[in-house]
Amino acid sequence: MKFTDGYWLTRPGLKPIYAIEVDDIRADPDAGTMTVYAPTKPIRQRGDTLNLAMLTVTFSSPAPGVIKVRAEHHAGAVHRGPDFEKFAQESFRPTIEIDDEFGVLTTGDLRVRVARKGPWRFDFEHGETLLTSSLPRSIGHVTREEALGQSAATWMHQQLSLDAGERVYGLGERFGAFVKNGQVVDTWNADGGTSSEQAYKNIPLYITSRGYGVFVDDPANVSFEVASEVNSRVQFSVEGESLEYYVIGGPAPKDVLRRYTALTGRPAKVPAWSFGLWLTTSFTASYDERSVNEFVDGMAERDIPLSVFHYDCFWMREFQWTDFEWDARFFPDPEGQLSRLHDKGLHVSAWINPYIAQRSALFGEAAEAGYLLKRTDGSIWQWDLWQAGMGLVDFTNPAAVEWYIGKLEALMDQGIDAFKTDFGERVPVDDVAWHDGSDPRRMHNYYAKLYNGAVFRALERRRGRGEAIVFARSATAGCQQYPVHWGGDSDSSFASMAESLRGGLSLAMSGFGYWSHDIGGFEGTPDPALFKRWLAFGLLSSHSRLHGSDSVRVPWAFDDESVDIAREFTKLKMRLMPYLAQAARQAHTEGTPMMRPMVLEFPDDRGGYDADCQYMLGDSLLVAPVFTADGSVEYYLPQGQWTALLDGSSRDGYRWQVEKHGFDSLPLLVRPGTVLPFGARDERPDYDWADGVTLRCFELPDGYDELVVVPGHDGAADTTFRVRRDGNAITASSDDARASWSLQAGDALAHADAAGELTISLDDTLQEGHR
User: What is the pLDDT of residue 769?
Assistant: First the structure.
């Protein structure tokens, strides 16, 4: 929210007070806190202390490299929650030093320095580097008196400085410009599609190109003015009398995400089969058991590997969502059909949501037991949007959670392996009372965590850790623990394809390790050209799903070339699984997303700061989807000589490239200095990735000596290879006797049947791009 009218004036009806100077700084070593008392006008004599508001700012640290800041006006406000889950390090305490000049709290390689004299100021520093500062008129409390047409309200706000050229990223899955400078962002979950400022997944976290992050610890609406109220500052504000936020140190953006996900939860490990191609019935397209079989058999007949089949909304009868009962008119034998799909090697997903329609037999059951959200007068909250007379499951009620999970367990008994947890954004705020007494404003976004968390844990309880997966649309901070998330309702257009990617990149900078989108777009029917371009993009994303609204997305519905491209890129992704599995492990263990904006992987290269039409898939593959009908594409290559994976040609980096590609191609470049493990199988994602793997070497520098790890699948141990380059020879070795493997450099290929060592000699006959 903007409080000022230009630089000097305040907006009508608002009364701000600001921290002006420091009166005192006190330390509590046992609690690990440093508290600053800030009058809101200068104190020159004793009389100045009368009739004066004071702001209190408390610094602490939950873990090395992370500083928590709590700023408050009146401390006696009622706090009803909910609050984001945080994972602090047990018994950790920062170092606090206070002298006549400064109060300094140090945690790991990050510190905050508060000036005791002069105008208000505190600085966050990493080593000798100043990251950001709270300057005069930057931290304050704002009051709005009740007046005609508006209620009384108060806010706390903070402004942190931006350096010249500093870029701001994140704030959830936002489909506008990837760089957030100049934007106004309100973190309020909404079902608004992908073409507006609204977002399904609002995360009050931003990360800057200077290598630090700021996480505002409030699940209600946090308003961010990103260089849009004061051009040289980021402002964030919340309603109420207090504001809490964390400054998270780097020095690189990856370090920020590592620390942030340690604080709020790391993405879970997901099953290997989930990386294959998902095919859905689409939303309102007509389907039944016969057509489902035609879809599945049609993919097999055309040699397009399929891993997951998904039943969207109409597996249940209309007006009865959600009742968890198959519509017997179209699915008379659900257990039998699911069993037959499993026999074909498929996993099965089913659509659900958190609403119970009045015609559902479950409505009366849930209402009687008190499992639905109520109004303040005790009646059940209902409306007719989406389904007639629907109520909303109250996931703050533990009994309601177990009741809902029980319905899912019955579906798992039938053979369902995963759930698409749709909706969770249209959560009411006015005139509602949650079972646990939560503040409705704070519950609006937080509901997504309760809903998706309950479903994910139910799957995990049944399948085991590492085998649970949801396909979720709504999210808030912490929801990265319950993957996977998809990009919501996009249009079938090139513009919407690009905005979907921008949403995915912003979500990646917000701590989410995996992400997907509707190949071909959701609304409308893509023309064959768009569908083919989206196929390549979708199958080079962490998760890949064919889905639409009122038309199907089977490739043969478009043209024969679509079938060929679906086959080609699905099989390519299957062969990339040894590499993708390691990238997925990094998402789970370190919080580094699989799909990475250029600034995340190359934080020192300003050329990629604004590149929002491309990404790194893992640390070594650059993907630049084609967003044009004629195949033209522009993308940025960092320094070095990059190799096209699809045809072996090379590109010089440190420059923007302009190319034109056919439907069967796109810029897919391998980073110089890469050993890319390439799998031996292309028909499924969940195979023994080390058996028959080929280590493909790209531009290894002389003296290269690295370990290449191929993760073990299904409980198997990892396989580790040592790869070295000495002059004109590349040598690889492994102690794993169970798997065959190969070493490839350019056109030269050597094969081993078991443990041992392989050497390839590079000579002048090899293409320069492969040396």
Answer: 37
* CATH topology assigned to domain 688-770: Immunoglobulin-like (2.60.40)
- Computed over every residue of the chain, the mean pLDDT equals 96
Q: Return the H-helix or E-strand segment holding 675.
A: strand 674-678
Pairing of strands 518-519, 470-472: unpaired
Average pLDDT over residues 696-701: 98
Phi/psi region, residue 692 (left: phi>0; alpha: psi -120 to 50; beta: rest), is left
What tokens appear for 512 in the block? 């989410």
Task: Return the CATH class of domain 4-248.
Answer: mainly beta
Domain 595-670, CATH class in plain words: mainly beta
Contact 425, 353 (CB under 8 A): no
702 assigned to active site: no
For 231, other C-beta atoms within 10 Å of its C-beta total 10
Instruction: Give the model confidence (pLDDT) of 447-471 as tens digits.
Output: 999 999 999 999 999 999 999 999 9
- Tokens 């078991």 identify what position? 754
Give the per-residue pLDDT at 766. Answer: 46
DSSP element (H, E) containing 634: strand 632-637
Among 323, 489, 518, 699, the active-site one is: 489
Residue 753 known to be catalytic: no
**Four-way CATH pick for 272-283+303-552: 3.30.70.20, 3.20.20.70, 3.30.450.40, 3.20.20.80:** 3.20.20.80
Check pLDDT > 90 for residue 762. Answer: no
Catalytic residue list contains 422 = yes
697: helix, strand or coil: strand
Among residues 422, 612, 682, 686, which one is catalytic? 422
Catalytic residue among 425, 523, 682, 699: 425
Tell me whether the omega of the peptide bond preceding residue 267 falls within 30 degrees of 0, making it cis. Answer: no
pTM tops 0.70, yes or no: yes
Percent over 70 (pLDDT), the chain: 99
Q: Quick one: CA dihedral 425, 426, 431, 437, positive or negative? A: negative
